Amino acid sequence: MLNHIHLPDPVEERFNALEEELRELKNRIRYPQTERESTLKIYNTFTGKKEEFIPIKPGEVGIYVCGVTVYDFCHLGHARGAVIFDVVRRYLESKGLKVRYIRNFTDIDDKIIDRAKKEGTTAEAVAKKFTDEYYKDMDRLGVERADVEPKATDHIDEIIEIVEGLIEKGYAYEIEGDVFFDISKFGRYGKLSKRNTDEMIAGVRVEVNERKRDPLDFVLWKASKEREPSWSSPWGPGRPGWHIECSAMSMKHLAETFDIHAGGKDLIFPHHENEIAQSEAYTGKPFAKLWMHNGFVNINQEKMSKSLGNFFTIKEILNVYDPEVVRFFLLSTHYRSPIDFSDRNLEEAEGALNRFYTTMERVDRFLTESAAGKGDESGGESSWLSDEINLFKNRFEEAMDDDFNTAQSLGHIFELLRSINRFLDKKEVIAEEGRAILKLASDTLKEKGKILSLFQRDSKEWVKAVKKVKGTTFSEEEIQKKIGERNEARDNKDWKKADMIRKELEKHGILLEDRPEGTVWKVKR
RNA sequence: GGCGGCGUAGCCAAGUGGAUAAGGCAGAGGUCUGCAAAACCUUUAUUCAGCGGUUCGAAUCCGCUCGCCGCCUCCA
After folding, report:
1. Which of A406, A413, A411 is nearest to A452 (CA)?
2. Where in chain A is the domain with CATH 3.40.50.620?
3. Closest nt by CA–C1' to A342
4. Quick one: pLDDT at residue A281?
5. For tag attachment on chain A, is the N or C end more exposed, with fewer CB atoms within 10 Å?
């Protein structure tokens, strides 16, 4: 009689929960690697959580990455951010999203001016020089150009407009040619970096400037001193403060509200906090929807930084390691975690790449030689490899969907690599079918590798590149000649002579491997 | 002092509530090889800094302790 009244019963609830679980398990068994709903999750600094990524405009995504202030050569830390967000962009594109990617240059700032003074040149010349150097480094690291690469000095009008607007709205005030943002007017100040203003004021290290209403107020426009670069403004000759250029450029090239704003963790406060304040105060709309921040490159557990002086420039590192090695190293740790720079870690990355290209060399050889009519025994079973390939594709995507987990996606690449080697080791492989599957495997690896901007070279190019960077004395021709001599000795079973030649080459950093298919050489690490 | 984060094998590094704790390097044994190398196979964490708690179930959530780091000043 009372069955229309539902009383919650803990046992029944538990039972239902278990049934739900059972259903899910059954589904997993029934449809192991079928089309999974590909939902990309990204960690948002603002909310402190991984969130499902939903673009503002379906199918499109706008990203603004804080680039560099061009006053010096880039170090590995700069490379990390550039590489990571390059991968983010490539992955988003690979998912079929139309990405608009903006990466700026801050080309006017105190440090640039200081350097120009020191070198007796202009700020413009300093900025130009290090912008060029930035491109050189990033090109070598395989970082793609952004869709727009705006410069602060090209956006002075826009900056002035925003500053004027902020004064009008009562968010900013002018004193003797300087304009400050009044943080007390912006209630949400501190929300991104999760700090409250009272505590910060209590902090000893906040710069004290008597003219500011609040020590935390920051400069939007700076009156310029004599013989400093300046632009005319309603407040007299001056230049933009740090932070404002990013607001102006992101609004101009993206929108007042856009999808992703990214940068290094050290930009969370004050840079990004200030960007939010000035942008949202100006537009009255939310600024970036999602904030991504990459972790630091550490050296001996310490942050690599200019001020500590413990940094290595990209150029220095590329003198010793191939760019792909550096890129692999940078992607072998999740982007939000710190990554420890050391020779040992770089060498490990090189070793991993060696493993990859060694396998690819085997694949290439199989493909070309079996095409020439060899290895055409029949029988064997190769469908398991195509299962592995499909599994890999799913796993790769799953890893990348999980907040761009490149470390895991690389792990999956090596799992597939082992499968390929295992396949290659089986002598009973059918040539025709085997070739098709191996081609598929290597194409798949290349395709996914493209997202990471890794694994794109020919195995021979790789070996040559490593040889070049290691500075081996022997030329390729000499090496080939020695291999010829040695193989002659081997044919005559003159093992002593053969071993002597191998040792001689090894002394010069060249390793020989006698494969059933022939002898190949490699560079010793 | 405030805020944030980290601690997984000898090393690097995934995993952040459920199915055997990925992957790489190094080590041991084996297959292959003239010998090697490469590759493959087997093996290497009964346990996730420590101690409590929540839960049917915790490396994963909560609390405390220890150790390390970052931001609060320019920094990617």
Report:
1. A406
2. 44-319
3. B12
4. 96
5. N
Measured CA A385 to C1' B69 distance, in angstroms = 44
Q: Which residue has the tokens 């493909």?
A: A367
CATH number 3.40.50.620 is the correct assignment for the domain at A44-319: yes
Rounded to an integer, the average pLDDT of A502-524 is 90
Q: Residue A380's pLDDT is what?
A: 53
pLDDT in tens, A481-496: 999 999 999 999 999 9
Class in CATH terms, A343-458: mainly alpha
**Tens-place pLDDT, residues A296-335:** 999 888 899 888 889 999 999 999 999 999 999 999 999 9
8 A C-beta contact, residue A321 and residue A469: yes
DSSP A437-493: HHHHHHHHHHHHHHHHT-S-S-HHHHHHHHHHHHT-SS-HHHHHHHHHHHHHHHHTT
The ipTM of this complex is 0.93
A232 CA to B71 C1' distance (Å): 35
Does the structure show a pLDDT above 90 at A24?
Answer: no
Tokens 């002579």, residue located: A497
Instruction: Give A199-236 pLDDT, tens digit per residue.
Output: 766 554 555 677 888 888 999 999 998 889 999 999 99
Residues of chain A with CATH 1.20.120.640: 343-458
Q: Which residue reads 């070279």 in tokens? A: A457
**What does residue A222 show for φ and ψ, rounded to 5 degrees?**
-120, 125
Q: How confident is the model at residue A473 (pLDDT cuts 50, 70, 90)?
A: confident
Contact (Cβ atoms closer than 8 angstroms) between residue A229 and residue A123: yes
Q: Which amino acid is at A315?
A: K
- Cα–Cα distance measured from residue A127 to residue A72, given in angstroms and rounded to the nearest whole number: 9
Residues 314-373 of A with CB under 7 A from strand B: 332-334, 337-340, 344-345, 348, 351-352, 355, 358-359
Distance, in Å, from the CA atom of A33 to the CA atom of A391, rounded to the nearest integer, reads: 7
Structural tokens at position A303: 């942050």
What is the phi/psi pair of residue A346, to 5°? -65, -40
